[in-house]
Amino acid sequence: MAKYLVTNIPSSVARGVKHLKSVIEERYRLIEEHGSNWEGKPNDMLMWLMEEATGKEKNVEALVIRILAVNFAAIHTSSMSFGDALFRLASHPEYIAPMRAEVEAVIASDGWTKLALQKMRKVDSFLRECQRVHGIASIAMSRRAMKDFQFSDGTFIPKGTYLSLPVLSTHTDSEYYEEPNVFNPWRFSDIREEEGERLKHQMVSTSSQYIAFGHGKHACPGRFFAANELKCMMAHLVLNYDVRMEQEGVMPVSDALMFGISPNPKAEVLFRKRQGS
């Protein structure tokens, strides 16, 4: 019972069960009655999970837990990333004008399209730099060794060992980044102007030096959608609003719990409709 005193996860799961139990049971009834396909069959995440579930994974609570996990990965991570970017922008409103000029030019040429988002290099660079210096976690790419393993330098990893990569120390390593502790909003857009660097340093690109989305074959598969989502919101923001903190230049202190980092939930940003150019 101690878990109920230190975490709200059980109560969140119970709340999810309350909302989804009747939906899940009705869908199972329809599957039993009509087979795997029927007219009006939902095409959503819950249905996909139900179709792939086997054994104990098919029970209501297990499905609810998976839905909650997907919600966290798809919604809260993007919310925290944008929250940090918003605070960064409001702390330094001088960054608005360059992004605003870029967005206006791109939208005039290509409208609100996927191609337009690809051309918003300053917006892309600003968001990538926010993730580099802050991010939403101090570690990434957590893995468990499934067997004993020895690296070429002799380091031995016993089976069952959990390993993670340090995000902050990687992203602030002077071997990889010039003036790594300085926030440079156009760091990556400037690099992308160089020959052969147009794709390597866009927001969704991963490497051993940039691991906000992980790296390798298990890198975040949703990063392409997330990047476009964040760029849409930032482009809309700079086009339509002026923002600043009450104390200009003061970045709200983030909250940190274990390895997680989140924007200060009590910080306030001043908004007004865009004034002038």
Automatic annotation (TrEMBL):
Per UniProt, heme binds at C220
Keyword Iron appears in the UniProt entry: yes
Secretion signal: which residues?
none
Which Gene Ontology molecular function entries are recorded, alphabetically?
A: heme binding; iron ion binding; monooxygenase activity; oxidoreductase activity, acting on paired donors, with incorporation or reduction of molecular oxygen
Q: Which CDD domains match?
A: CYP503A1-like
Co-factor(s): heme
Q: Which InterPro entries match?
A: Cyt_P450 (IPR001128), Cyt_P450_CS (IPR017972), Cyt_P450_E_grp-I (IPR002401), Cyt_P450_sf (IPR036396)
Q: Which Gene3D superfamilies match?
A: Cytochrome P450 (1.10.630.10)
Record carries keyword Oxidoreductase: yes
What are the entry keywords?
A: Heme, Iron, Metal-binding, Monooxygenase, Oxidoreductase
Highest taxon listed in the record's lineage: Eukaryota
Per the similarity annotation, which family is this? Belongs to the cytochrome P450 family.
* Protein name per UniProt: Cytochrome P450
Q: Which organism is it from?
A: Meripilus lineatus
